[in-house]
Amino acid sequence: MKKLRNLNRGIILFIVLIIGFGGYIVYDNIRFKKEKPAIEKVVTEYFEQIGEMNLLPEQYRKVGEPVPREIIQKKIEDNIKIIDQYWTKDLDTDYRTKEDMKTELKRLFENQQLGNNKIQDATCGVKKVSGIKKTSPNGATATVEFFLSLELQQNAEFYNGTWWLNTANDGYVSENGSDTQQLGTYQTTMTLTLEVTRVRGEWKISSTGGGYSSGNTTFIPATDDTATVE
């Protein structure tokens, strides 16, 4: 009889634990659901600034003319402020992170100081933020789909929100760049999976390491079909 009572107590305790755990899961899911708008907001706000992050002040966009060092440095500092506002250090990985974004954007504008590869105009619009999933007590993933349009030389380097600089003619940019100088408009729709982390109650981007894809990519030459830069 005593063994039976002990067995019953064990079963009851197990049931209580299961109910308690199930209740916590339900509560945690409800709480995280309330966090999703904040995640969507930080992702949307950051990606809608990507166009502007590629641009020098309008008076310094003329191809072939060098840009004063102080203008380049000011642009680099402005971009660092944006990254610091929306990004945090990745707690799980050491790639495609906040520091990688700073490094690539710094390289973008240091190259432009030489007078080459100026971007004439750039806009970025977020279509949707979806697939927000919790991955840890303070971590989640989210997928952003956005449209990027740039007026530039085909070989001009630009930042598209991933983890490297791109060009309109061959995608990835090596240290030596490329030499296709056709002027035109580059447009692409991209889907990128992000990692986000909650830091002191605020959600921030921590990595673009979740993979990306692009579609509907076009390069439309300038109306003057022979428009190039010597």
Could you list some keywords that capture this structure?
disordered C terminus; five-stranded antiparallel beta sheet; three-stranded antiparallel beta sheet; alpha+beta; single chain; 230 residues; Nuclear Transport Factor 2, Chain: A; 4 helices
Question: Would you summarize the structure shown here?
Answer:
A hairpin with a 3-residue loop joins strand 4 (165-167) and strand 5 (171-172). The chain has a single domain (40-221), classed as Nuclear Transport Factor 2, Chain: A. Helix 3 packs antiparallel against helix 4.
Describe this structure in words.
This protein is of the alpha+beta class. It has one domain (40-221): Nuclear Transport Factor 2, Chain: A, CATH 3.10.450. 36% of the residues lie in helices and 32% in strands. It is built from four helices and eight strands. The chain has helices at residues 2-47, 50-53, 69-86, 98-112; strands at 119-136, 139-153, 158-159, 165-167, 171-172, 183-199, 202-207, 212-221. The strands form two sheets. Strands 1, 2, 6, 7 and 8 form a five-stranded antiparallel β-sheet that branches. Helix 3 (69-86) runs antiparallel to helix 4. The longest helix has 46 residues, at 2-47. The radius of gyration is 24 Å and the shape is elongated.
Low-confidence stretches: 172-179, 225-230
Terminal Cα span: 97 Å
In terms of quaternary structure, the protein is single chain
| Mean pLDDT score | 81
Return the string of H and E elements: HHHHEEEEEEEE
Please specify the SSE layout and strand pairing.
Layout: H1 2-47, H2 50-53, H3 69-86, H4 98-112, E1 119-136, E2 139-153, E3 158-159, E4 165-167, E5 171-172, E6 183-199, E7 202-207, E8 212-221
Antiparallel strand pairs: 1-2, 2-6, 3-4, 4-5, 6-7, 6-8
Helix pairs in contact: 3-4
